[in-house]
Amino acid sequence: MLGGQYRLERSVGHGGTGRVYVATQLSLGRSVAVKMLRPELDTESAGEQFAERFFREASLAGGLSHPNVVTIHDYGRDEDGTCFIVMELVEGRSLKALMKAGPLEPERALDLFAQIARGLRHAHRSGLVHRDVKPGNVQITPGDDGREVAKLLDFGLVKSDMPEVTEITREGSFLGTPHYASPEQVRGQEADARSDLYAFGVMLYRAFTGVLPYYSRNSMALAMAHVRDPYPSMAERAPKVRVAPAHEAIVRRLLQKDPEKRYESADALLFDLEHAVDEIRRRTPTPFAARGPSMAAAGSGAVRASSGEFPLGPVLVGGLLLCVAIAAGEFWWSARGGGATAIPAMSPVAEPSVDWSAAVLVAEEPVSLQVSLASDPSKAE
Question: 124 with 230: CB under 8 angstroms?
Fold first, then answer.
């Protein structure tokens, strides 16, 4: 029993700061998710910082209310000193698990990421910066209408831009996930909303291509790649995957090293994402069943247009006579020894076979860690 009212049922995951359980809230008889701080982090002096950050996550994120952000119900400290946060239980799977299968269809990717952008916009408007945006912190769940719903969770490294909230990350250090860290975070500089957008861009790069833009088996080298290495084109990193130039342009802007050159807000980003989705949907042919009653009317012998009715019977008879005439002409030409050069049957083009589960190195899977940097990041190895 936790906090006198939460019965832990089973463990469902763990991260750098704690473990997550499915639990039953006895007072309401509902299932919830409970995140518990790792015991060893609550005993040392460093653990005091983790505990402070842990409760800050709950108090700040608890003020958010948005369909694309997981709701915080409660938080506290148990009798034995265990810190915990009680959250909305979201069924489904993480974006990380979804992307292990390879690139997402463009429309699906853009729709899901537009939802994530809406969640970030809400947090940013509330003065909060997530600072650890990554696929493992996005849950995909089925909505009431069967549509996929993306929810942003785990504000474990959340930061407020409100002056009354004290910043507890040490200057000159980086705490986060190097695969998705912005250059300014790696340098130990101040993170703002545009840092979240950079991480968003890394996720979108992976959603489109199936791979990360930067990779290394060394955490420090990977982190520093975000600072030093130029943007790798998608054609370079994933030559077998075709990404629309307009879609890559969005990602390229998100991954600018200089925050001033990125989107200035999630609002501006969302405008481009929604426009890209609309463009795809406008180009997609309307399904036969959705083309209206005029197609069904063809069976009755007439096609109705805005100018009136056009009889279909004579058209069909004329078309049949034309086919007969063409066939007779071809027979006459071949009998005279003529005819076209034989064209060999074309073999179907094989789709490229890619093992997307292995496209991202094991070392590139997100792991929260603390990386201490030299005072001059350019000299850090």
Answer: no
Residue 27, SS3 per DSSP? coil
CB neighbour class for 4 (10 Å; exposed up to 12, middle 13-18, buried from 19) = exposed
> Letter for the amino acid at 267?
D
Longest distance between any two alpha carbons in the chain, whole Å: 101
- In which domain, by residue range, is 44 found? 1-89
How would DSSP label each residue in 97-135? HHHTT-PPPHHHHHHHHHHHHHHHHHHHHTTEE-S---G
Give the residue from 58, 89, 120 where a domain finishes.
89
Q: Per the domain annotation, does 123 fall within a domain?
A: yes
| Lookup: tokens for 120 | 């970030």
Rounded Cα–Cα distance for residues 18 and 4 (Å): 20
Are the C-beta atoms of 371 and 220 separated by less than 8 Å?
yes
Instruction: Compute the radius of gyration of the chain from its Cα atoms.
Output: 28
Encode the chain (381 residues) as per-residue pLDDT tens digits. 888 899 999 998 776 667 899 999 999 999 999 988 766 555 544 556 666 777 776 787 888 999 999 999 998 888 887 888 899 999 899 999 999 999 999 999 999 999 999 999 999 999 899 988 999 999 999 988 889 999 998 875 555 554 433 333 444 456 678 999 999 999 988 899 999 999 999 999 999 999 999 989 888 999 999 999 999 999 999 999 999 999 999 999 999 999 999 999 999 999 999 999 999 999 876 543 333 443 333 333 333 333 344 444 554 445 555 554 555 555 444 444 444 333 333 333 333 334 443 344 433 443 444 444 443 333 333
| Domain count of the fold of the chain | 2
* Distance linking the first and last C-alpha atoms of the chain: 47
Mark whether 42 is an active-site residue: no
Select which of 132, 154, 196, 272 is catalytic: 132
Domain end residue (candidates: 53, 74, 89): 89
The contacts of residue 187 (CB under 8 Å, 6+ apart) are: 174, 227, 373, 377
